[in-house]
Amino acid sequence: MTYPIATIRADFPILAEKIRNKPLVYLDNAASCQKPNAVIDAISHFYRHDYANIHRGVHTLSVRATDKFEAAREKVRVFINAASSKEIIFVRGATEAINLVAQTFGKANIKAGEEIVITAMEHHANIVPWQMLCQQTGAVLKIAPMNTQGELIYEAFEALLNDNTRLVAVAHMSNALGTINPVQKIIAAAHAKNIPVLLDGAQALPHAAVDVQALDCDFYVFSGHKLYGPSGIGVLYGKQALLEAMPPYQGGGDMIRTVTFAQSTYAGLPHKFEAGTPAIADVIGLGAAIDYLNSIGMATIAAHEAKLLAYATEQAQHIKSLRIIGEAEEKGAILSFVLERIHPHDIGTMLDSLGIAIRAGHHCAMPVMDFYQVPATARASFAMYNTKEEVDVLMAGIKGLIEAFG
Ligand code: 7TS
Hints:
Elements: H1 5-10, E1 18-19, E2 22-23, E3 25-26, H2 37-50, H3 60-80, E4 88-91, H4 94-109, E5 115-119, H5 128-137, E6 140-144, H6 154-160, E7 165-171, H7 183-192, E8 197-200, H8 212-215, E9 219-223, E10 234-238, H9 240-245, E11 256-259, E12 264-266, H10 280-296, H11 298-317, E13 322-324, E14 334-339, H12 344-352, E15 356-357, E16 359-361, H13 366-372, E17 377-381, H14 388-404
Parallel strand pairs: 3-15, 5-6, 5-7, 7-8, 8-9
Antiparallel strand pairs: 1-2, 4-10, 9-10, 11-12, 13-14, 14-17, 16-17
């Protein structure tokens, strides 16, 4: 079957926008993806017809809103194949999910002198919460190194695991390099030493099917906005036994069973970790995004994006003054690069004048920039709605820029 690119593009109204009088070429998907009508309409319909606060009322709208909210939780459960919807905690995004694990699981289980292992290619969201925990507890952060292709040096990672290691927290896919880490091997090695593993799936989940039970990861975190859903909503998946043993993160309404001034008792999962009124419409929008992804199929999307990446990489390799940053064997749809004598911010600005949206900067991965001794990179990142023609527009833009700069 041919890939239904025209239908898919027509599902995303923003793709019809003109930017500086040019057709928009949106290649900043690793930062955030655009939204299909299915998501926009689900949110709009909810506010127009079903809106009320959830879990609190007996009136019709509250029941309707609660049912839709909990139906979305079930969609997430099926999408990542969690064993129970109790294991799906709604949070603001991958960042909040990691902070939650650090401040609850981390504080309860990791003591002074004990170790947390991350990798050299993490997003700041999977570095800073652990540094904060280490400052609070005296725990020690260990960094598994990578090679110049941007691949984890697996043996060096394994050598860091010891009787003192209490957690491994690793990007499933790097946002700055595109590297897909060997998470199955990482989890097996950590579990052999009884060490739980958190996977930061913010980048990986939009590009390929993920099965948390097959992976056997202990925590999996992701953001809705990179998954064609709304911003401000994301998910922490955790194995039920771990979540049950963890203290709550924030206190307030919805997360309690009983409250007196003397003491309070907490609700069961998942509500224990969902204090206060959540982003109700955005959860429903995330559910609609998952329905949309399923209607196309993750394997179909993955195959399309793999072709785009291969084509873009091959085209980029023909440009003499272009250096690709991140050349892992296993790689998702991200092309980070630098050009001789042209700062990435100038690349970004010049391409914008052609209607092309890419990202220029450190991509919240400053240690990766230090490793490659560059201040920043330009990054084109692809999604299900991008085309080979858009890659051609990007490459023509880059070539024009090189000529203009002499
Ligand atoms: N982890 C990874 C691997 C990411 O790429 C990002 C966001 C996060 C965590 C944090 O996600 P958030 O939704 O909580 O912000 N990455 C990017 C990016 O590459 N450009 O902008 C945001």
